[in-house]
């Protein structure tokens, strides 16, 4: 799905800013058709942002159900005769959208874009009322999943993942215009052969027009051209995209009528690179690549999961400062701005769906002893799998052209034991491979399913494991944790012979808590635990990556094992370094 952009034939208008907003605790708005008029009793709410922390009131923070946003947009006069589209970069976790009185879109999934053509509903030069109802309920059929309960105190939401269930319009909203005959989609795959690169492309269109494709280098010099909806562009003396070198070409797709008049033009950044798995190596451009970086979150004070360019650039600068070359979009697809930035700066990305918390053993923490099976007709079943398939499709459709994305992660820490897990996951892996045959695929493993009981690893190209020796196991005991970790990683290497990326390891540390001897929650313990892991990684050849959990402290639901959120950040929630940041920087940059 192409992002809205400005070109010689296209214009876009941001709808970001202050919208009006109203919670709907009784779920009355749909029946009362709130979209038909100005939202009564509404307050102002920023877009993009989560609504939860904007108002200092638990009714907002812990709201379960519908919430309504509304704005009025003036359609540029110059758009007469154009095709006009309303696009949401994300609405969490699902939304219905109306333009004036007409429903135009409905979307499930809080982290991927959707859009609706509204040409016939709006008047260039006129104003249109846009109303959105977002809903944050997590059920057996949603990703992530959850359980809703009706209690005397109202509706409550349980979920099995470890980050706060922020909701709202988290990313930009756009109104944009294209010509009626227009480019609908572009897909590129790249290869390298010595110094020559190839870009295989497919361009979709609506309307009859001839296609002309031009590839330009970063200096704007034309390096290859082609005609037609599919083709191969050859780039002699190619400058590959590589980790640390975000070199991008630009593929410009133009549509012309029979007289040669330009109808539409869309420009796509393209990085020419290859990704492959060979034995226990992860290869980028044929070179072994070692992942150094983090599992992250889209999370910040006040705005929650709302995208913010200032925070994004600051996070990338801190990753540069510490020497990270990669990160995982744990545990959902991030804003497209993030992937664009990674493309331009040569940062490598593991791109994950919102499938997190697919393991009901977590219900123990809610005091449940009668644990239901994770996969069944009544828990995670066919409806969840349909949502998950759609999530895989939307992730790949959105992100397949990003050179920074080198690996799809189908899920984080699902229950991966037994035939039910395999039946659930095999079609998801197959779908990812069908949609993107060129990119490695994996899932992130939890310690409960070791190398002998996991039924999914043979479906994957790499082994991704989250390990917490020294924290959830061997807490405070690094001497015991070290051999346990090493034995675990060696068992994976011997049993599966695939590259291993340790996608999570770490310890909570509360800033300012110091201790001379190994003391969990202290800054020193966090640093010493990481050093222990690094010693082990350096001894196990199959380990090709280390992603610390987490880049920064982040919000979670309250729990007695959380101190105002998860404190495994190397940076605090407001991005100040803990002691461990300097330890990690010494390893990754060799610098003080
Ligand atoms: C995990 C999860 C992550 C949690 C982390 C923790 O295994 O993948 O979402 O936040 O552990 O800190 O417990």
Which helices and strands, and how do they pair?
Blueprint: E1 11-14, E2 17-24, H1 29-32, E3 43-47, H2 58-61, E4 66-74, E5 83-88, E6 94-99, E7 102-108, E8 114-117, E9 127-135, E10 146-151, E11 154-159, E12 173-178, E13 182-193, E14 196-206, E15 210-216, E16 222-227, E17 230-235, E18 249-256, E19 262-270, E20 275-278, E21 281-284, E22 287-288, E23 291-295, H3 309-322, E24 326-328, H4 336-345, E25 348-352, H5 382-399, E26 405-412, H6 418-435, E27 441-445, E28 463-466, H7 478-496, E29 500-504, H8 523-539, E30 543-549, H9 579-589
Parallel strand pairs: 23-24, 23-30, 24-25, 25-26, 26-27, 27-28, 28-29, 29-30
Antiparallel strand pairs: 1-12, 2-3, 2-4, 4-9, 5-8, 5-12, 6-7, 6-9, 10-11, 13-14, 14-17, 15-16, 15-18, 18-19, 20-21, 21-22
The protein binds (2S,3S,4S,5R)-3,4,5-trihydroxy-6-oxo-oxane-2-carboxylic acid (GCB).
**Secondary-structure-derived class:** alpha/beta
Biggest sheet strand order reads 23-24-25-26-27-28-29-30
Shape summary: globular
Rounded mean pLDDT score: 97
What is the fourth-level CATH superfamily of the largest domain?
Glycosidases
Rg, alpha carbons: 24 Å
User: How many DSSP E strands?
Assistant: 30
Strand content: 25-35%
Total discrete domains: 3
Architecture of the largest domain, according to CATH?
A: Alpha-Beta Barrel
How many helices in DSSP terms? 9
- Low-confidence region ranges: none
Strand count, sense and barrel status of the largest sheet are: 8 strands, parallel, barrel
**CATH hierarchy class name of the largest domain:** Alpha Beta
CATH topology of the largest domain: TIM Barrel
What share of residues is helical? 10-25%
Q: Hetero groups bound?
A: (2S,3S,4S,5R)-3,4,5-trihydroxy-6-oxo-oxane-2-carboxylic acid
Distance between the termini: 43 Å
């Amino acid at each position: 799905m192409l992002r809205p952009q400005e070109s010689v034939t296209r214009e876009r208008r941001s709808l970001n800013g202050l919208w009006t907003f109203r919670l709907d605790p009784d779920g009355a708005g749909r029946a009362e058709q709130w979209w038909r008029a100005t939202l009564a009793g509404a307050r102002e709410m920023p877009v993009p942002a989560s609504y939860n922390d904007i108002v200092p009131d638990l009714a907002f923070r812990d709201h379960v159900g519908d919430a309504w946003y509304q704005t009025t947009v003036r359609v540029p006069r110059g758009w007469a005769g154009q095709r006009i589209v309303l696009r949401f970069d994300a609405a969490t976790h699902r939304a219905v959208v109306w333009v004036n009185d007409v429903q135009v879109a409905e979307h499930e999934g809080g982290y991927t874009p959707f859009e609706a053509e509204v040409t016939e509903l709006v008047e260039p030069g006129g104003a249109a009322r846009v109303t959105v109802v977002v809903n944050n309920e997590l059920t057996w059929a949603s990703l992530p999943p959850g359980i809703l309960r009706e209690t005397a105190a109202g509706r409550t939401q349980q979920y099995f993942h470890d980050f706060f269930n922020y909701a709202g319009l988290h990313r930009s909203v756009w109104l944009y215009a294209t010509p009626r005959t227009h480019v609908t989609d572009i897909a590129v795959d790249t290869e390298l052969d010595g110094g020559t690169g190839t870009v295989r492309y497919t361009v979709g269109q609506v309307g009859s027009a001839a296609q002309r494709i031009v590839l330009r280098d970063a200096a704007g010099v034309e390096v290859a051209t082609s005609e037609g909806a599919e083709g191969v562009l050859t780039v002699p003396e190619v400058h590959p995209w590589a980790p640390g070198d975000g070199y991008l070409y630009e593929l410009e797709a133009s549509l012309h009528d029979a007289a040669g008049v330009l109808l539409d033009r869309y420009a796509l950044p393209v990085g020419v690179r290859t990704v492959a798995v060979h034995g226990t190596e992860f290869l980028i451009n044929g070179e072994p690549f070692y992942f150094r970086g983090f599992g992250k979150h889209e999370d910040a004070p006040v705005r929650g999961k709302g995208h913010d360019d200032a925070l994004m650039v600051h996070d990338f600068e801190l990753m540069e400062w510490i020497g990270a070359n990669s990160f995982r979009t744990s545990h959902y697809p991030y804003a497209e701005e993030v992937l664009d930035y990674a493309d331009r700066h040569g940062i490598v990305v593991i791109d994950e769906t919102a499938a997190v918390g697919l393991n009901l053993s977590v219900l123990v923490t809610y005091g449940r002893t009668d644990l239901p099976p994770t996969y069944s007709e009544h828990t995670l079943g066919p409806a969840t799998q349909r949502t998950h398939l759609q999530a895989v499709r939307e992730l790949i459709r959105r992100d397949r052209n990003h050179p920074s994305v080198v690996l799809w992660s189908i899920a984080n820490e699902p229950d991966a034991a037994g035939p039910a897990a395999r039946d659930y996951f095999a079609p998801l892996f197959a779908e990812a491979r069908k949609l993107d045959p060129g990119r490695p695929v994996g899932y992130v493993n939890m310690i409960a399913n070791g190398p002998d009981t996991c039924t999914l690893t043979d479906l994957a190209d790499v082994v991704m494991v989250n390990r917490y020796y020294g924290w959830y196991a061997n807490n405070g005991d690094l001497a015991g944790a070290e051999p346990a970790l090493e034995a675990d990683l060696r068992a994976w290497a011997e049993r599966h012979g695939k590259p291993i990326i340790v996608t999570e390891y770490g310890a909570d540390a509360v800033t300012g808590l110091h201790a001379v001897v190994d003391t969990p929650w202290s800054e020193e313990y966090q640093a010493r635990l990481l050093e222990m892991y690094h010693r082990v990684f350096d001894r196990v050849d199959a380990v090709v990556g280390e992603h610390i959990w987490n880049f920064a402290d982040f919000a979670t639901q309250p729990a007695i094992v959380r101190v105002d959120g998860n404190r495994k950040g190397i940076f605090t929630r407001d991005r100040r370094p803990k002691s461990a940041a300097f330890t990690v920087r010494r390893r990754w940059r060799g610098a003080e």
